[in-house]
Amino acid sequence: MGSSFRNLRALNGLYGKADQTALFYLSALGRLPFTLIEKVVVGTRRKAVEPVYPPVFILGHWRSGTTHLYNILSKSPRFQYVNPYQAGLPGDFLLLTKLFGPLLKRSLPKGRFIDEVPVTPTSPQEDEFALANMMPYSFLHALYFPGDFFNTFNKGLFFEDVGKKEVGDWQEKLKLFYLKLQIAGPGKTILIKNPVYTARVALLREMYPEAKFIHIRRNPYKIFFSMRNFYAQLLNELSLQPHDLPDLDDHILSVYVRMMEKLERETRGLPKNQFLEIDFETLQKNPLKTIELAYDLLNLGPFGADKKYYQAYLAGIKD
Q1: Using alpha carbons only, how large is the chain's radius of gyration in Å?
Q2: What's 12-44 look like in SS3?
Q3: Which end of the chain is less crowded, N or C, counting CB atoms within 10 A of the terminal residue's CB?
Q4: Smallest Cα–Cα separation from 246: which of 256, 238, 235?
Q5: Residues 211-236 pLDDT 10s
Q6: pLDDT tens string 114-125
Q7: Do 57 and 70 meet the contact criterion of CB atoms below 8 Å apart?
Q8: CA 116 → CA 109, 145, 238, 301, distances in Å?
Q9: Percent helix / strand / coil, the chain, rounded to 5
Q10: What phi and psi values does residue 279 have, to the nearest 5 degrees?
Q11: Quick check: pTM over 0.85?
């Protein structure tokens, strides 16, 4: 519902007819005055926050524990993460969240489709949802428009058969979105969780050479079975086109291998203060020690100042 007119036209051209198209255009039309005003606001405030601080990226294949790590780290006030409004309304969130916060709150789902993790106005979200509203190449479009699922997915994840101009457009959209996050949280370090970036470290380092990366690993057998459920549920919930659920086993396996090989290749030689790998099982057993290790090795700041926030969060959640 937060897509721009330009992106809606591109999506229709690439992926064909979709349900609720008229509703999406009405949403874009209703937001248009706020979108235009926000462009002016960003233009006047960008000098105050540029350059954007080097972000911290949480990497890992889907269902590896990236959400758990993201939820923990987001409790520190030193980080500016992506909330549901910013993910869903990337062109207008600076204005709309101030003007219509209570109304937007009522529109949030109670929990994530895949695992019922609660969704609140402060729940950390993936920036992929924002980018899918800003440009036509995202793996999410394979879930929204599954008519040509595998090709759409590979374009959106690996930029397969996508030109340099389009990849450059993605980089510019990403920079703009992070600039707006920095405006929303001046002085904070941007914290991003997006499994897609497990295969895009080189592109991210082109934009943010000093960015830091935390890769969380998990038993791939567990990932495989969890991904079957992931696709089945999300395709049923998000699809805007009639579809038959494709056979995804080979897809799950091949994507995992490609992502891990690309990650290994593009992180080889990175300094120790920029790249850290942790295990999901270790994070589960010793979350505070694991987070403290990340702080120490990646120079994220004094852990003692943030420890109380992490302790309070961890004490209030179940396994």
Answers
A1: 19
A2: HHHHCCCCCHHHHHHHHHHHHHHHHHHHHHHHH
A3: C
A4: 235
A5: 999 999 999 999 999 999 889 888 88
A6: 556 667 778 999
A7: no
A8: 10, 23, 15, 32
A9: 60, 10, 30
A10: -100, 140
A11: yes
